[in-house]
Write a structure and sequence with these properties.
3-stranded antiparallel β-sheet, Aspartate Aminotransferase, domain 2, alpha/beta, 399 residues, Aspartate Aminotransferase, domain 1, homodimer, 2 domains, 7-stranded mixed β-sheet
């Protein structure tokens, strides 16, 4: 009568969603201020003022029928030219409009890319910890997601494990840096080693292995840390970008795919992306927001709140006795859980009204994710509670 | 190296697109005013002033972080409540927020619905002439599109042909009324007969057969013609609506699905829709425009230009000797071609700078589609040219 697979995908609640919904219920009981909800990765910084201004200007200045009209499927040429110019200025690249395909955010971008590339028997490799929807999206494209175990010391890549898994069936490798959930940024050394191995394997297998750079957090990186721009390191790179985090526009669904000229069979890949967009009923990325990003693409992101929150939470957790890598990018910390079973740990934290997500959900047991895109005052108030939680495990107690 | 199927879907140009692109080239040669481009179904009436006002009001009044933030996948509850209230007032229904799923336009709505319903071996029936993307979308969901031949006398339904095709494999029947490309509206008599047959077949096969009402043109109907509201006639109806035409917002990708409580396994179907939306990376319908339609859903559509254009073109074509049903809805005429081969006819029309789409593309040979959502002055100027075209076939010449 209906697709059982779709029903299960549509009704099985994710752990994150379950925790979030518990939080809403609990907030109604104990008050919003007494619940420390670190569950969701939803930007808490409003879109910058220049976004509002751009919308007003577009509605006042541009031809109204065009503003809300269909655009061609890859997005307006004039918008893609602006995006290309902006990326070229920032990263010393040579992209043109024809290299860009404007999408419904990074989720749209990666799903279209997976679908465009997938053939029967294909495998896509990613590195734990990873965004759990990858599995759903890769499988929907008819391929298999292969996960490389984490390297918890620094959340860079465990290359021994990677080399065990890359094979003639590998269609692409997906990286997400700055990373959700670890907060790590892959160093240039990591990227060089990764792409060296991939180049060697391309030769060995005699076919391209694409590097898909899922980078919605590119702009959110701290302390001038370098986020390597992957097309510089590897020809067969496909960039999937989103304005959800950099401009705080997650609900508007706007981002893009870049297929560089240098990528193997550039025109074929771009054509397959157009076909995948068609069957996924992309139609066109929202037309008003295509124009907004064209006007704003050179504007800076305001990451000061995230920087402040990350530092505050990190220092508090370390003081309470937690082990965690320093925040490098995105807006997540991914500390070690205080017992081996991260589900049990998060359940216990919940009793303290600390809502944390088990690392197992990201393919990395023994850890938890704390999204610090929340009110700074909530973080401040939660720090003594984290301390109590640690003390309940006998950590950090004054003797 | 990539999906050949996606490549072909992404690069094989549709006839409409080819004609449109020819028109752009030709306009550059002979001037915009000397080309009569009836190829595209792109609204030429700008979005009403209340849309612009609603956007300004939302940006000035509502909490900025929420305005552009993620919403839950089915859309904001408050928005769905407003939509339900509005539909209930207009059609004396009893829908609630839980019956609505807000989507990226009607294309998003029907694709999600196809995917939610499809099981192996399923067939979806539609009636020629029909929107050609149905085939691509149904096949992407893993099912087969079965086409009932047209009834060109009035473009209602040929029930003899329908009864030959409905079978135990029929998962759903798709109707599009007011119709693209015929401009016909299915009468209450047609809908009653259709749903009577479907009810009988549901009993005979012992499983539901869904009726998918693809209705982006619902508001565009002339002379107070009644457009029957299908949930009143058939319990297992799923409504797929879009604001693309009624509010001239095709680029913004906003519409909805309604699954009535009365539909078989309401909760299962709604769950499967959520799953299909997830794998199609719907995420959420654009958040600003969710709020816009909530504020504007009771406002009237301005169809005066389309009414004027339809009448003008219809009268001109009839006077020139064409045969065509009177415009009842949408913004298309679908006259008989002046020779049996509609491709040859449209090629010949192109020599007169009249850009028309062959009916074969809509599963209805021997006809052509003329989209009259263009400038009224262009239609006026084109009428003597249609006359010349008819005369070249020996029609309407003064003896």
């Amino acid at each position: 009568m209906f697709s059982q697979t779709m029903y299960e995908l549509g009704t099985k609640k994710s752990t994150i969603r379950t925790i979030f919904e518990y939080g809403r219920k609990r907030a109604a009981e104990v008050g919003e201020d007494n619940i420390y909800d670190y569950s969701l990765g939803n930007p808490n910084v409003p879109a910058p003022a220049y976004i509002k201004q751009a919308i007003f200007d577009i509605l006042n200045e541009e031809e109204p029928c065009a503003v809300h009209g269909y655009t061609i499927a890859p997005g307006l040429v004039s918008v893609r030219e602006k995006l290309a110019d902006s990326v070229n200025r920032r990263f010393q690249t040579n992209f043109a409009a024809k290299n860009f395909f404007i999408t419904g955010g990074a989720a749209g971008a990666i799903t279209i890319t997976f679908k465009a590339l997938s053939e029967a028997g294909d495998e896509f490799i990613t590195f734990a910890p990873f965004f759990p929807e990858y599995k759903c999206f890769v499988e929907a494209a008819g391929a298999k997601l292969v996960v490389v175990p984490p390297q918890p010391a620094d959340f860079q890549i465990d290359f021994t494990e990677f080399e065990k898994r890359i094979s003639a069936e590998t269609k692409a490798v997906i990286v997400n840096s700055p990373n959700n959930p670890s907060g790590a940024v892959y160093s240039e050394k990591t990227i060089k080693k990764l792409t060296d191995i991939m180049k060697k394997k391309e030769k060995e297998y005699g076919h391209p292995i694409f590097l898909i750079s899922d980078e919605p957090y590119r702009e959110i990186a701290y302390d001038n840390i370098k986020v390597p721009y992957l097309p510089h390191y590897y020809a067969d790179t496909i960039v999937c970008y989103s304005y959800s985090k950099s401009f705080s526009l997650p609900g508007e669904r706007i981002g893009y795919i870049i297929v560089p000229d240098e990528a193997a069979s550039f025109e074929k890949i771009y054509g397959a992306i157009a076909g995948a967009a068609r069957v996924l009923t992309h139609v066109n990325a929202p037309s008003l927001f295509q124009r907004v990003i064209a006007r704003c693409c050179d504007m800076p992101s305001d990451i000061s709140t995230y920087r402040q929150n990350g530092t505050l939470l990190y220092n508090g957790l370390i003081a309470a006795g937690f082990k965690c890598i320093k925040p490098q990018g995105a807006f997540y910390l991914f500390p070690e859980a205080l017992e081996a079973d991260d589900y049990a740990f998060c359940k216990k934290a919940q009793k303290f009204d600390l809502l944390l997500v088990p690392g197992t959900d990201f393919g990395c047991p023994g850890h938890f994710r704390a999204s610090y895109c929340i009110k700074t005052s909530t973080i401040e108030k939660s720090l003594p509670v984290f301390k109590k939680l640690a003390e309940s495990y006998g950590i950090g107690k004054r003797s």
